[in-house]
Design a protein that fits this description.
The structure is a single chain. By secondary structure, the chain is of the alpha/beta class. It contains 17 helices and 18 strands. Helix 5 packs across helix 12, helix 7 runs parallel beside helix 9 and helix 10 crosses helix 14. Helix 6 links the parallel strand 4 and strand 5.
Length: 429
């Protein structure tokens, strides 16, 4: 039943874990009565139910503070987080929403969706929606857009985020993620934007990969600009994986199950934090509204989830059986492929154990992170173009090691090998 608590749903799913049955949710009685759906619309159980994550009602005042009646811009507006930010921004009735996106197709998709939403809802018809193709590295264009459209609030979601891809394209990833943030933030100051919120990641904490290190450098850019600027309020919001985003494990596992398997997982012990895209976007908006300048906010992601357990639950929810040594006649097999370059067994949300403070919101914390003077960060940013031409990756990773606390090159697999090598060397004298 749709009114059932998540805890009760978990009890039912656990009691059925030994039986190969599909578990689905009924539509609500209101939906049935209004003929919005019929019984044929009985839907699969939401993956959120398998994660045992309880959500918290958003604070309306925080959602509205930087949006209602204002001109708002989202970079990376066609991405998983960017597009959801746009949906929630529309609901909070800005005066104007500017979509800034590098991918034409992604921009077209969210532009069409929001246009249809405006047509269907009279409350949104006064909102002006402007769609612009562009890169966050083009500072002059950004200044022109921010000034021309009188932007007051920016949510900076544009980033290259796939760890293995950025690992094999280190300069392209860092120029987009770090220098792009610098250009976008400087343009915001120039255009007297009131609020700038950087969407960051748990991979920025003690990273083993270029993507995470580039996002921590992006945080340092915003921290440095915040210290030297009083006009624009900068803040950063750091969180883990979101369900259903491009490249995430849930749609990948769903596709693999539909194809009959196998499900591929890099390591049996790998864990990740998860939350839904709508919840993450809502908390980003609320956190940004709490900022006074320079804060690194950390979202409470709940308990980390073991990826192999998530895969097994998804197999059970589809009515299939796990195929393994104890059940060779099962339906779906799990295959371990080995950690990819730059991949960690587990992610962290804060750099130190003691540098986290609560806020008045139960799911938003504040990390007290070390920062550098802006000039130090700018010095390396000015060298990026020349070093990129030379593809001097050694130089790039040297900067990571200096500026990004805890950065180490390679995946956790490499760290495990190093530990074994050290142990053997010690034993051999």
């Amino acid at each position: 039943m749709p009114s059932m608590s998540r805890a009760r749903k978990k009890q039912i799913m656990d009691s059925l874990s030994g039986i190969s049955v599909k578990i689905k949710d009924l539509p609500s009685l209101r939906e049935l009565a209004d003929e919005i759906v019929t019984v044929s619309h009985i839907r699969p159980v939401d993956i959120l139910d398998v994660l045992e994550r309880e959500t918290v009602e958003p604070v309306a005042e925080l959602l509205q503070k930087n949006i209602t009646g204002k001109n708002v811009l989202v970079t990376g507006a066609g991405g998983s987080i960017g597009s959801e930010l746009c949906r929630q921004i529309i609901k909070n009735k800005p005066k104007c929403l500017v979509l800034y996106e590098q991918s034409e197709y992604a921009l077209y998709t969210i532009d069409q969706e929001l246009g249809n939403l405006k047509t269907a809802n009279a409350d949104y018809q006064h909102i002006e929606i402007i769609s612009i193709i562009g890169s966050v590295s083009n500072e002059k264009k950004l200044i022109n857009i921010f000034e021309k459209n009188h932007i007051k609030t920016i949510y900076h979601a544009a980033a290259y985020k796939h760890v293995p891809i950025v690992e094999s394209n280190p300069f392209e990833g860092t120029i987009n993620n770090t220098k792009g943030t610098y250009h976008c933030a400087r343009a915001a100051i120039q255009a007297r934007v009131e609020t700038f919120v950087l969407i960051s990641t748990d991979k920025a904490v003690r990273p083993t990969n270029v993507m995470g290190a580039s996002k921590r450098l992006a945080e340092l850019v915003c921290q440095g600009l915040s210290q030297s600027n009083s006009q624009t309020c900068f803040s950063m919001v750091r969180f883990g994986n979101v369900l259903g985003s491009s490249g995430s494990v849930v749609p990948l596992f769903t596709k693999q199950i539909e194809q009959g398997g196998p499900i591929t997982i890099t390591h049996p012990d790998i864990t990740r934090y998860f939350m839904t895209i709508p919840e993450a976007a809502s908390l980003v908006i609320q956190a940004g509204a709490m900022a006074f300048g320079g804060e690194v906010f950390v979202l409470d992601m709940g308990a980390p989830v073991k990826i192999v357990d998530l895969a097994k639950r998804m197999i059970r929810l589809t009515g299939c059986e796990l195929k393994d040594d104890s059940n060779p006649n099962g339906d779906i097999e799990i295959v371990f492929t080995g950690l990819r370059p730059g991949e960690k067994l587990y992610e962290e949300l804060i750099i130190g154990e003691d540098n986290i403070e609560p806020t008045f919101h139960p799911l938003i914390m504040q990390a007290m992170e070390h920062s550098f003077p802006l000039q130090d960060i700018e010095n390396i940013l000015f060298e990026f173009a020349e070093k990129a031409k030379q593809q001097d990756v050694v130089w790039l990773k040297t900067q990571f090691k200096f500026f990004v606390e805890g950065y180490r090159e390679g995946s956790d697999k490499d760290v495990e090998v190093e530990k074994v090598d050290t142990t053997l060397t010690n034993e051999m004298g």
